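wait is this the right file?? whatever heres the structure
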């Protein structure tokens, strides 16, 4: 790509990404701190990828998703996953009408722009596979009819890492469908004080709708245009290949720690998420820092650990940190 093209693209993106600031301003009215989580929500929205949020209860996971959907002029639905949930509760069902002597379709809560799957690991495999079709194919089958889901369609799932009793761990194939897995930590002391003040006052914070779904869809097209140099492509493939063949990257010590490396979906998602991240930073090209910023969220759920790694308390984060420190930065 020629220098003039990049300059033009850069100017275009700076113009077109102005709504990002408006969106962040609205979300920040309600959400104190958690900058990383809010940015990742925007990356998922702009790169057309689903998100899995993991964190202890009370860290505003549900609130952040709800606030984002209020700031975007789209339809929002929340599904509380429980062990007795059925696929029909999610996608909808066919109801027989005696009067008309025919079946009518009643659509379920999955027919929305933003679907919050709260505590996704509490529902059995049947329900999770129904959600999987919606996530992957952007369509739902009810009876013998198939319905397209409207765009943008974003599944934001939350899971609680502490309570594992009565939960159904997500199968690898499903976890791989999530573009990002975001692990959320506790707020800082000053932020906590602000949270207290905000929640003990009577004032109800109003979130305005500042972006339309049409604007989101046109921004998605622009995200795909963000320039990705071949050097950056090589950097992405090196990071992914280091999870598959650590010995080729002077990381022999992890050879027996990794049971399986990241799939090609990781490479695709790392490139797309980096493009969306640079769009949020109002830039028309991807730099190595974008890859490093988003790498953990794209890769942490795509690497399998052996018993040996678990016995030595080695996490996927440890392995990724080592990979990023070892693989040559362009």
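ok assuming it is, sequence goes like this
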């Amino acid at each position: 790509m020629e220098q003039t093209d990049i300059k033009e693209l850069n100017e275009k993106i700076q113009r077109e990404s102005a709504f990002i600031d408006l969106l962040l301003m609205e979300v920040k009215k309600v959400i104190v701190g958690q900058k990383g989580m809010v940015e990742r929500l925007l990356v998922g929205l702009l790169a057309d990828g689903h998100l899995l949020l993991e964190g202890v209860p009370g860290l505003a996971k549900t609130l952040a998703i709800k606030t984002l959907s209020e700031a975007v002029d789209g339809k929002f639905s929340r599904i509380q996953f429980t062990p007795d949930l059925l696929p029909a509760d999610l996608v909808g069902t066919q109801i027989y009408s005696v009067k008309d002597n025919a079946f009518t379709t009643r659509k379920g809560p999955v027919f929305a722009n933003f679907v919050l799957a709260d505590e996704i690991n509490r529902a059995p495999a049947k329900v999770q596979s129904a959600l999987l079709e919606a996530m992957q194919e952007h369509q739902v089958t009810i009876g013998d009819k198939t319905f397209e889901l409207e765009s943008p369609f974003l599944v934001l799932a939350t899971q609680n890492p502490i309570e594992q009793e009565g939960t159904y761990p997500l199968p690898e194939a499903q976890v791989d469908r999530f573009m990002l897995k975001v692990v959320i930590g506790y707020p800082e002391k000053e932020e906590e004080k602000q949270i207290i003040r905000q929640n003990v006052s009577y004032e109800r914070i109003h979130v305005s709708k500042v972006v339309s779904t049409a604007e989101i869809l046109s921004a998605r097209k622009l995200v795909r245009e963000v320039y990705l140099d071949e050097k950056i492509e090589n950097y992405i493939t090196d990071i992914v290949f280091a999870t598959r063949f650590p010995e080729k990257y002077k990381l022999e010590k992890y050879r027996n720690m990794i049971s399986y490396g990241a799939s090609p979906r990781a490479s695709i998602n790392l490139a797309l998420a980096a493009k969306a991240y640079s769009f949020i930073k109002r830039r028309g090209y991807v730099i190595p820092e974008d890859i490093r910023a988003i790498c953990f969220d794209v890769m942490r759920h795509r690497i399998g650990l052996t018993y040996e790694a678990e016995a030595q308390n080695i996490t996927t984060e440890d392995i990724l940190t080592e990979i990023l420190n070892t693989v040559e930065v362009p």
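The CA atoms of residues 12 and 253 lie 46 Å apart. so i think its the right one actually
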